[in-house]
Amino acid sequence: MANVSPERVLELLERVRAGTLRPEAAVVELGNLPFQDLGYARVDHHRALRQGLPEVILGQGKTAEQIIGIAKSLLDAGQNVLVTRLDPEAAAQVLSAVPELEHHALARTALALKHAVAVVPGPPVMVVTAGTSDLPVAEEALETLRAAGVPTERVVDVGVAGLHRLLDRVTALRRARALIVVAGMEGALPSVIGGLVAAPVVAVPTSIGYGAAFQGLTALFGMLTSCASGVTVVNIDNGFGAAMAVLRLIRAPGAEST
After folding, report:
1. Which domains, ranges and CATH numbers included, belong to the chain?
2. What count of other Cβ atoms lies within 10 Å of the Cβ of residue 14?
3. What is the mean pLDDT of residues 142-148?
4. pTM score, two decimals?
5. Who has the most CB within 10 Å: 144, 157, 218, 253?
């Protein structure tokens, strides 16, 4: 890996052994060290050390060649690889060049688990959709949580237009460690669920809806003004961001594991 000197790492370890540097401080310093400069990207090889998940490749806006280069850099460094927003046209080329990747077409993701991920103990994270049209965003969240070893459950098509469908699952929802609630149209579902459960709720507005839905803005504004206290809202169609928000919640110091 570029910018990683064995002498630098050895010097840190020697200071720990001599007692002049605390192990916790050495971890912080190691977390700032390595990245690989590919010219078009500076690949962060210690993201997992700092945040618990390797750097994730956003496929949107990148060429297939750039995605391939970054993925190979991560794999060569012994990292697992998650690609999000993988364009169907680029997917075939990427998967051919990096056969370790497993493609999830609906989620628009590709995942390579070079090393097994330890399962995060505790109850599952529930990913809930208002409608079937919201599934691509929900699946992006699910694949991100899968990459992090977080147990999950799906609850799909329980929007407020048929509230009895949601009420049938309330007992299951109350078992969740956290909930990611994905909805378009007017975006009401997170408010309803937020009033029924005690666990953290992360709301994801989607761009699904007619006319005045404004490609998700109506759902976004509705979720931001939720009458259910404490609902967290991420950006439109951002299933990845919702999953990362949940990861920060459940990995925070002192967070309960059950």
Report:
1. 34-112 (no CATH), 125-251 (3.40.50.1970)
2. 11
3. 95
4. 0.84
5. 144
